[in-house]
Amino acid sequence: MVSNSTLTTAILPPPGPELSLPDQANSNPAVFQDAMTVRMRVFVDEQHFSADAEIDEDDARSWHWVISATTGPGTSIPVGVIRLVPPPQPPHELLTHPDTTLECPYDWAHEPCVKLSRVAVLPEYRGLGLGRKLIQVALEWAVHHAAEINEAAAQVAARSHWTGRPAQWQGLVLVHAQAEVERVYKGSGFRTDETLGRWDEEGVEHVGMFQRVEVTR
What we know:
Blueprint: E1 7-12, H1 30-46, E2 63-72, E3 75-85, H2 93-96, E4 114-121, H3 130-143, H4 146-159, E5 172-178, H5 182-186, E6 191-192, E7 198-201, E8 204-212
Parallel strand pairs: 4-5
Antiparallel strand pairs: 1-2, 2-3, 3-4, 5-8, 6-8, 7-8
């Protein structure tokens, strides 16, 4: 019974580039494998996004959280997932104008932000507040780990041969929310930035939302 399940949360630091879609032969870290189980069921099976695009370049450099529910003595299943993508993020123009050609794949000009994405909960576990719990867990982790977030941004700068010095993360958090769940993010403290407009991702309307958290140094 869902109501009688015990819930646990696991975190996976950035797993690196050797990731693949779930199958019996891959070598994904266990937490990432659990995350993909939820993501594939929600985004691919339910919402009909492309399976080939479900793993992207942000997965390798992101922190991932999975909520699991007990299903019996010594057994559990993953039921919810979220990831936190450290700075930098791609320029917003690439979303609203996909044909735009930019020299740099990342936005170094604006204040750095982390992005919460791939938030998903299995259908039978919705209505229990797990989406908000995932957001809260990720934000609470972020406010105490700014140094790790800044180091991750510095690594991207080094790999991309960017000659500037990345600005420090000051607590700005971004989500690209599906328009139909905009209210869920508002309930978690995010506010829609109308200047970002609305855009289509594989047939689904999205909006940009921000909030700022107080970083512990």
